[in-house]
Structures are given as structure tokens and as C-alpha cells.
Write a structure and sequence with these properties.
single chain; 637 residues; alpha/beta; Nitrilase/N-carbamoyl-D-aminoacid amidohydrolase; 2 domains; 20 strands
């Protein structure tokens, strides 16, 4: 449970209709197994102590007494477990019968939550037996104990800050105003649903949609346990469709018709962080809610969920291609609007033969095609200097010619040499002045050509470079519209690959493929034997690591210790813990130190859930201190 993770389980036991002692034993066996797997919140189906399909047997005194007896014994059984458990049963109160979920933990019955919406349509006739439950909480006697009874119950655990669990039952999820909405606004971060939803054609997809959308809309974890094999098949079949979701993502889902238990590690810290950042998530004051405490041991959750090493890049090929097409559309439509607003008819873009400038050129070509402007109006400027290799130079030229842009070559060696002489910079000293002097000369040329041609300078820098500040201030840092500003480096490669796979000619595919095979480099230092000597990822670290750090720091608000743990899982076997810490330290140091560059970024389109624009997602002071972040990284060493 450290760092906010809580392992949950949705369990469908094999039952016998109306055989309460048998069902009780099956539930105990399932509880023992789930606790052995580390589950701390365990959810069983609706009416599982008796079976959902008892029909008029629910009116039998003996069945109700047996269910109550079994409930007490199950509560006592949880005294030896470290978990919060929800089981379903029929419960009589004040002469009426209720379909309830009992919350059990530490040997006690913590509360009874009655089903609020009782279906009496189509194949359902619950209204024949059960009374709708009230939201207001009262107390009911079970033996010598007074137990809370009502819809507005929250079960809170101090072992994890923000862990509050609330409950709804089956049909409650399907109605226009589900109880879970009020639960979440009262502070619940996990909603459990005890269900007996039968199977009909296509119903599973709709059920999954409901669970996903509920968890997304409520910014919550959702644990759904469905009735399965063992229920009567007189008229209906139940598939045991268990699901665990977190904020719109299904973490685990059972295969139906197998009574399969599923486990999911819900991240409470991430849910809390998401709610904090959403100004429209307006919690109430919890009026009318009773909070019941329960205890869990604070220990590290054995994680079974996986973490993609590239959180910005979908792992599924179909989804990745769809995402690439969408991003290219966002980039080009953003640029299209800027052209329509300014009235400009030409573009100036510095092409280096590298990935970023290639993507920017592809986006510009796409935009000009949309506008009906001739591609010849795109001035692709290559500016070789001290670090330019034949390979990147040739690729830049081939790319421009293949895309039918106008190629302009301006060798800047002489201009930079004169500039260095003017300021007293030795040509033998390959320091930051040596590198940045070239970058700023290139930007000056692009800007002046744009003025001369009444054109816009298209920026090529990507979001990962902006996060690290790996850009020359007022050099490649500056443009008139930065089409790549919202695209992380790990995604740039996939966008270019997608373009190569779907492009118009074989010649274009070949040049794009060679660009993809070229090491990432600013080419500001002289090559060695004609080969790139300055490789970016050898200087600042692997971009896949930095993009991982960036996502979980900005998108999720995670502390370095948690980011480190997730990175260790995501990159197991690829990077050692020492390597991850080395580059993490550099990431935090540079991210904080380089904010001043991001504070004056040119306009550019946001394409994903993470962005660094000072006018949008990242309102960060340029003088913020990284000390507490770096201190935690040091403590991990």
C-alpha cells in the first residue's frame, strides 16, 4: 500500500442456490486465496450468500436466518485477515427485505449498504421481494451490535491517505443518477459494485462501457464483481464478468463463464492527483455521510499491473496508427489556422536531416496541401556547418526534393567564423559558445529569410527537448509557430515511421527510413571520420527514460521515489537502478533550471495530456528550487 497502491480483487465463487453453508465455505476459500495474493479490498457478487436466483425462497424465514448466521461467521473470519470485504445477502429490517452489501473487516460488520434501485422490468422481478434502500444512514441491530445501515456510508482507511471506499449494487450503476456520483463527491476514491447482471448478446460490451465511464467520470477506482456459474439457469445465465477499472482504464477483466477472480492494483495517489488538478471536480462536504474506519497494515503492495516504458506511445499497433494520424491532424490544423489568420503564403523551415525537422517539414507539407498552397512555397533551408555529416546533409536535401519543397542551401561556416573572431572566441575551444553560436546563426538566417519572403518560420523543437532545456535560447528555441512543441521525442519517431509506412512514394519512404536510423544529434561538434560525434542521448540520457519521468511527474504528480519504482518495473532488464537514478537526477536538475526557456515559448499546438506551454498546462516559476526533489533522488541511491 506504500506509494498509494492498493490491490483489489473481484471474486465470483462457485455457489449453490439457497445452500448458504456451502456458499459460506466457498467464500471463505476465495477469501483465503485472495488475501494470499495480497488483496486488501475483496468484492463478491450480489446476494452471493444465498444466490441471486432464489426467487420466492427469499421470503422464507429459514433462508434469511441462515444468511444472517453466515454473515456473522464471515465477519468473525475476517478477524484473521488484513482486508476489507464486501459480500451480498438478503437482510430483513423493520419488516421489509433489502438486497444489501455487507462490509466486513477486522472481525466486525462495518456496515450494510442497501441496493437503492430495484429493477422490475424485462427479466428482472426484484421488486417482488426487495424494498429500495434509503440513502440516510440509521442503525440496525445484529445480535448485540448496532450496525450502520444506509446508502451514504464511506469506509475509510488511515493506512493510505485518501483511501475511502463506497458501495453500490448492480442496477445502481445503470440508472441516470448512480449513487456512486454522490459517493465520489463525498470523498470516495474506490467504488465497489456487487452485481448479478445476466448475460445477453452484446451486454458485456455495454457493461464494460458503464464501468469504464463511471471510473473516468468519477476519477475513481471501480471494482465490479458479477454473479457466475452456480446461479440457476432456469431462465438466465450469469457469466461472472468481473472488472477492475481506474479512471477510465480497465486494469483487469475476467473471461466470462469461468468464475475467474481478477486482481487490480488501484493507485489512490494518482486518483487524488487527478482530482486536485481538475478544477471542475467539485467535492461536496459529505453531508449525510457516515464514515466508518477500518485498519490495514501498511506494507508494500506486490504490483501485478504493468507500466508501459513509453507512456506517450500506445503499445497496440492499430491504436498507435490511429493516434499518429490524429496528432498529425492536430499539428497541421493548428498551423493551418495560423496561416489563415496571418495571410502568409510561404513557410521557412530549417532542415537538418534529423527527426524533429523532418516531422516539422512533413506537417508543413500536409498543411500546405490542406490550404491548396503550392509546396514550392515551403523554403526548406539546409545550413551546413562544422558538425554536419554527409549523411544528414544528403537526407535533408533528398527530403526537400522528394516532398517538392524549395531547397535552399546556406553554408554558415564563414559567417560563424567571422562572428567568433568578432567576440574573441577561439575556433579550437568547443564549448557552449562554439555550439550555440551556430544555432543562433541558423535562427537569424531563418528569421531574416522569413521577413524577406513574408513567410512564417516553422519551429522544429519537440517537448522532450523543452522539458530538459536542451535547446539554444533564442536559437532553435525560437520560431513563429512550433508545430512539435507538444510532441515528446519518443512519439516523434513513431510519427515519422507512420508517415513512412503510409507515404506517397517509395523514394520518400527510403529517405524517411534513413532519417529514422540516424542517431539523434544537434551536430554542433565536428564529426569523427565523417560520423556523428555528438550523440544527444549520450549527453543528456535516453529520451525514453526522460519521457517516462516527464509523464509521471507532470501528468500524475508523482514523487521521485514512486517514479523510480515504476521506472524500475517498466525498464527491468534494460536499465539498472543506478542508471535510472543517474538520469533521473539530471532530469530534475535540468527541468527546474531550464524553466526560463519554456516561459517564453512560441505558440504551438497541444496534442496530448502533457504539455509545457506557459500559457496552458505548466504555470511554473522560472526560479523554483529543485532541492526537495533532488534530495529524495539522492536518498534512493
Amino acid at each position: 500500500m506504500k506509494q498509494g497502491f492498493i490491490k483489489t480483487a473481484a471474486v465470483t465463487p462457485r455457489i449453490k442456490v439457497a445452500d448458504v453453508p456451502y456458499n459460506e465455505e466457498q467464500i471463505k476459500l476465495c477469501l483465503t486465496e485472495a488475501c494470499g495474493r495480497g488483496a486488501k479490498i475483496i468484492v463478491f457478487p450480489e446476494l452471493c450468500l444465498t444466490g441471486y436466483t432464489c426467487g420466492d425462497l427469499f421470503l422464507q424465514e429459514l433462508l434469511l436466518e441462515e444468511a444472517l448466521r453466515a454473515l456473522r461467521e464471515l465477519a468473525e473470519f475476517t478477524g484473521g485477515l488484513d482486508a476489507l470485504v464486501f459480500v451480498g445477502l438478503p437482510f430483513e429490517k423493520d419488516g421489509k427485505l433489502y438486497n444489501v452489501a455487507a462490509a466486513l473487516s477486522g472481525g466486525r460488520i462495518l456496515g450494510l449498504v442497501p441496493k437503492r434501485y430495484i429493477p422490475a422490468y424485462a427479466e428482472f422481478y426484484e421488486g417482488r421481494h426487495f424494498t429500495p434502500g434509503a440513502e440516510e444512514v440509521c442503525y440496525t441491530a445484529i445480535g448485540s451490535e448496532q450496525v450502520p445501515f444506509g446508502g451514504r456510508l464511506l469506509f475509510a482507511c488511515d493506512a493510505i491517505k485518501g483511501l475511502k471506499v463506497a458501495c453500490e449494487i448492480c442496477e445502481d450503476l445503470w440508472v441516470p443518477e448512480p449513487p456512486a456520483t454522490a459517493h465520489a463527491l463525498a470523498g470516495a476514491t474506490i467504488i465497489v459494485n456487487l452485481s448479478a447482471s445476466n448475460e445477453t448478446i452484446g451486454k458485456d460490451a455495454y457493461r464494460e462501457m458503464l464501468v469504464k465511464s463511471a471510473s473516468a467520470r468519477l476519477v475513481a477506482g471501480y471494482v465490479y464483481a458479477g454473479a457466475g456459474e452456480g446461479e440457476s439457469t432456469q431462465d438466465l445465465v450469469f457469466g461472472g464478468h468481473n472488472m477492475i477499472a481506474e479512471n477510465g482504464t480497465v486494469l483487469a477483466q475476467a473471461k466470462r463463464f469461468r468464475n475467474e477472480t481478477v486482481y487490480g492494483d488501484i493507485d489512490i495517489h494518482r486518483l487524488r492527483a487527478e482530482r486536485r488538478r481538475m478544477s471542475t471536480f467539485m467535492p461536496g462536504n459529505g453531508d449525510g455521510y457516515l464514515t466508518v474506519s477500518f485498519s490495514l497494515k501498511k506494507e508494500e503492495t506486490r504490483l501485478t499491473r504493468t507500466f508501459a516504458p513509453m507512456p506517450f506511445v500506445p503499445s497496440d499497433n492499430t491504436e498507435r496508427n490511429r493516434r499518429c494520424e490524429e496528432i498529425l491532424s492536430i499539428q497541421s490544423y493548428g498551423l493551418k489556422k495560423r496561416y489563415e489568420h496571418t495571410g502568409c503564403k510561404k513557410a521557412v523551415i530549417g532542415v537538418s536531416g534529423g527527426l524533429d525537422s523532418t516531422l516539422a517539414l512533413l506537417v508543413t507539407v500536409r498543411t500546405f496541401d490542406m490550404l491548396g498552397l503550392p509546396r514550392e512555397n515551403i523554403l526548406a533551408v539546409t545550413m551546413p556547418c562544422f558538425g554536419t555529416t554527409d549523411r544528414t546533409y544528403e537526407n535533408a536535401c533528398r527530403l526537400a526534393r522528394t516532398l517538392r519543397a524549395s531547397l535552399l542551401e546556406i553554408n554558415i561556416k564563414e559567417a560563424v567564423t567571422v562572428h567568433f573572431a568578432d567576440i574573441g572566441q577561439s575556433m579550437e575551444v568547443h564549448d557552449v559558445v562554439y555550439e550555440n553560436g551556430q544555432a543562433r546563426e541558423r535562427t537569424q538566417i531563418l528569421m531574416d529569410i522569413a521577413n524577406k519572403e513574408n513567410a512564417l518560420v516553422i519551429g522544429t523543437g519537440d517537448m522532450s527537448e523543452l522539458a530538459l532545456g536542451f535547446a539554444t535560447y533564442n536559437g532553435d528555441h525560437m520560431s513563429m509557430y512550433g508545430v512539435n512543441a507538444g510532441v515528446p521525442k519518443t512519439l516523434v519517431r513513431h510519427l515519422v515511421r507512420f508517415y513512412a509506412d503510409t507515404c506517397e512514394t517509395e523514394e520518400l519512404r527510403k529517405v524517411l527510413s534513413d532519417v529514422l536510423d540516424t542517431p539523434v544529434s544537434p551536430e554542433l561538434l565536428p564529426p569523427v571520420d565523417g560520423v556523428i560525434s555528438q550523440k544527444t542521448e549520450e549527453l543528456v540520457g535516453p529520451y525514453e527514460l526522460h519521457d517516462f519521468f516527464l509523464y509521471y511527474m507532470l501528468r500524475c504528480g508523482f514523487e521521485p521515489a514512486k517514479v523510480y519504482r515504476l521506472a524500475g518495473l517498466a525498464f527491468a532488464g534494460e536499465y539498472t537502478g543506478e542508471e535510472i537514478l543517474k538520469w533521473m537526477k539530471l532530469f530534475y536538475r535540468r527541468f527546474f533550471a531550464q524553466q526560463f526557456k519554456r516561459s517564453c515559448l512560441p505558440d504551438g499546438p497541444k496534442v496530448g495530456s502533457v504539455a509545457v506551454s506557459p500559457r496552458g498546462d505548466l504555470r511554473m516559476p522560472s526560479d523554483a528550487d529543485a532541492e526537495i526533489w533532488l534530495k529524495q533522488v539522492e536518498e534512493l541511491s
